[in-house]
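Entry 14: structure prediction run for Secreted protein. Input pasted below.
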Amino acid sequence: MLAIISAVLFFIAFLINAADISTNDTFTSTNVMLLGLTVLALHVAGIGSGWSVRGRSRR
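Run finished. Output tokens:
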């Protein structure tokens, strides 16, 4: 799920940069790209990867 969110953030950053859309200082393409990198780092670290069942054995 986090990988999809980061892909969407990268796409938004690309659109802001490619279309030369003027935004305020908060939503520049660099800031959106850094948010995407943060979410991607959380995904790679294993945060938000789903529920894991521990202590249950299958027979």
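Notes: The first helix runs from residue 2 to 18. Will compare against the previous run tomorrow.
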